[in-house]
Amino acid sequence: xxxxxxxxxxxxxxxxxxxxSKTKLVMNDNNFKIDIDPAGExxxxxxxxxxxxxxxxxLGAFLHLVxxxxxxxxxxVPRAFKSAGLLVGLFGNILIGILCTHTVYILVETSEKVCAxxxxxxxxxxxxxxxxxKQGPKAVRKWSGCVRTxxxxxxxxxxxxxxxxxxxxxxxxxxxxxxxxxxxxxxxxRYQLKLVIMVLLMVLCQxxxxxxxxxxxxxxxVMLAVAFGITGYxxxxxxxxxxxxxSNGFSGIPSFFSTVLFAMEGIGTIMPVENSMPEPQFLxxxxxxNSAMVVIVFFFxxxxxxxxxxxxxxxxxxxxxxxxxxxxxxxxxxxxxxxxVFFSFMLQFYIPTDIMWKRLRSKxxxxxHNVSQIWLRIIMVxxxxxxx
Length: 388
What we know:
Elements: H1 5-10, E1 24-27, E2 33-36, H2 58-69, H3 77-84, H4 86-118, H5 125-134, H6 138-141, H7 144-181, H8 190-204, H9 214-236, H10 253-264, H11 270-275, H12 288-311, H13 328-361, H14 369-386
Antiparallel strand pairs: 1-2
Helix pairs in contact: 2-9, 2-12, 3-4, 3-10, 3-12, 4-5, 4-10, 4-12, 5-7, 7-8, 7-13, 8-14, 9-12, 9-13
């Protein structure tokens, strides 16, 4: 809302002599609250200027963040505990959770500051990096374009190769499950199943709004909870039967940190999720980030600690391999994990697709934007399937 000249005259603006804080909340004759900076200008608040056709609420953002971190990587955390030891893994896991939360805070706060300074409603990860350099010292401003390109290449490489792993995991999980009841399925060409999965993903990956992916993240989280519950049942059924080590020395710590950090961090999805929110609910004590990270760290710590405590030195690369293949409950867990990863694909796929489209959009006539996006997503799914 704009402030008229008469309203500006009625504003009680503090002088620099008695100024005590960077921002002062003042009121005009109509009791309209306006944030004023020391120079007497209205503070630009990015969230108030966002025009969102499909805004995301607290729950939707929370589900997306939980799903972006609770992926297949969590199944390898018990093996990471085996590398570091039970006690080192416990405190190391919590430390990594705090570290990941802190880095996300830095990213989001930095994005909000450069948005306010540049009067920009929202910025993505690469956009934030570019804008930081543009608003920085003169010596580094010329590098802003290079920094943006570097961040985009890193994100595309990370997430596009990540969804390739997802494709392999889905096909292997389902083939293993089917082959138990249908032995002839073991002789299927693995690419036959991948082609079926590819066609389904080509349709689902046409979803372009973060808001519309919330139901799929919900399904993925429910399936993950089912798999964790069944895994927990097998873990608790034999606690204390094997020998474990409190610490395995420094040699296993690098492997532990790399595994847990790779599995837990989902920084590429942070800015798209935050930018989809019309209200500043992402940060804060009870904000989306802290709420999601508490759940994420709890699951990582529980699965890692209890998984290694149950199987000890017999802990496999993924905890699912320690479950009995001939038990129905274990088979349900196997299928639930496959379904969870399947419905997580779209969220991970959103990052590289969004970056690629932003690069191509200006080179395509506007009337062909819709069909071009459709073909871009089809081609990207086909390529990632062919490379698996």
